[in-house]
Design goal:
Blueprint (H helix, E strand, L loop, with lengths): L2 E4 L1 H4 L4 E3 L2 H11 L6 H6 L5 E4 L6 E4 L15 H8 L11 E3 L4 H25 L6 H14 L1 H12 L13 H5 L4 H13 L2
Parallel strand pairs: 1-5
Antiparallel strand pairs: 1-2, 3-4
Helix pairs in contact: 6-7, 6-9, 7-9
């Protein structure tokens, strides 16, 4: 999402505007249509400077009317809009500044919060690799097998169990019986595939 930011790690003490590339390229194509890169053709010649943010491909812009010589309580992207589209900006709202604190304490808190949110998900994903398919999954797979046909079920079943120690579906074996041997994760993958081919 485009917006104004302060991030000491990447930009020092500068206020920058982080443009969403896709959004601004769209504005440029719609209002100018010169076919050139909007940064090189319009933003840089208008006096804006591009500040890269590490190796991520993201960047910030600084320049007159955008981040320089402006009241930080009344920030708009009007100056950039005019440079890129050739039309006066008419933003009717003011934007806030997103501040990223990267102090050791803030980074530790961020990592702890990520761990709190994602650790249970990782744990569930790991369990799903070894726990057998649920009764509901087996029932749904049986229904899907009836819809797509046994041949299609068997072909996709073979793909899903590849690289595992799960035995292939035997000839004349019921689809439900074969599905009971799947793990939760492989059953989910088979369901997704069969629904896509339904």
């Amino acid at each position: 999402m485009s917006g104004f930011a302060r991030d000491p790690k990447h930009y020092g003490d500068r206020l920058v505007y982080e443009p969403l590339e896709r959004k601004w390229a769209g504005y440029h194509a719609q209002h100018c249509g010169c076919g050139r890169d909007w940064l090189e053709a319009h933003a840089i010649p208008a006096g804006f400077t591009v500040i890269p943010r590490g190796q991520t491909g993201y960047y910030g812009l600084v320049g007159p009317g955008l981040t320089e010589g402006v009241d930080e309580k009344k920030l708009t992207a009007d100056a950039l809009w005019e440079a890129v589209t050739g039309k006066p900006g008419a933003q009717t709202w003011y934007e806030s500044v997103r501040i990223t604190c990267r102090s050791p304490e803030a980074e530790a808190a961020r990592k702890a919060e990520n761990e709190r949110i994602y650790a249970p998900r990782r744990e569930r994903a790991e369990k799903a690799k070894t726990e057998l398919a649920t009764e509901a999954q087996v029932k749904y797979l049986t229904t899907l097998a009836e819809k797509v046909g046994k041949e299609r079920f068997e072909a996709e079943f073979a793909k899903v169990i590849k690289g595992s120690d799960i035995a292939p579906r035997a000839s004349r074996q019921r689809c439900a019986t074969a599905a009971k041997r799947l793990t939760k994760a492989r059953a989910r993958k088979l369901i997704t595939t069969l629904v896509g081919n339904d």
